[in-house]
Amino acid sequence: MDNSRFTRRFFVIGGVTAAAGVAAHHFLAAPQVEAEQKLPAPHEVMIVEFSDTGVEGRTVKVMTIVKSDAEWKSELPGESFRVTRHADTEYPFTGKYWNNHEKGLYRCIRCDTALFSYMTKFESGTGWPSFWQPIAKQNVLETGDGSLGMARTAVACRRCDAHLGHVIDDGPEPTGLRYCMNSASLKFVPY
User: Fold this and answer.
1) Residue 183, domain extent
2) Taking the complete model, does pTM exceed 0.70, yes or no?
3) pLDDT digits (tens, 9 = 90+) for 34-54
4) Which of 79, 93, 131, 181 is the most exposed place for a label (fewest CB within 10 A)?
């Protein structure tokens, strides 16, 4: 047998084998399709109902609204999805409600829960809609937020867990609080 032929055959077979090995490694190492998103089970919460004219109704038990990211993404504008689902923040002075002075009610953009009234809105100079208290404490959920290397208090809608913004203790009387919200999380209903 001719050694040059064996060498060429060995080289070709070795090259094909190496290419198959690289392809197999790439296929096996490639990220697999993500498993179904694990969602929390819906549970009961208490919220206070409000009419669109801001009249307080009754306190009711409702089930939390739980949907996948894909479902929320199909229902919400891009910025609202990023803010409410991934705790993003809109740029100051860009949201549609930071300079809104109309009478009305601010509801959750995802589930329509009443969150804030125009009567507690104030000019904070920050470029975000700011309120000195929610329309009903039961309608929001406050949790610790250690992101960005600082201790803050995040504010979310109690019914659907939409991220709304943060509460800071530099607001006006009577509470001394500033609920600094993202317009992208809110839906304004004028009176």
Assistant:
1) 44-190
2) yes
3) 456 788 899 999 999 999 999
4) 93
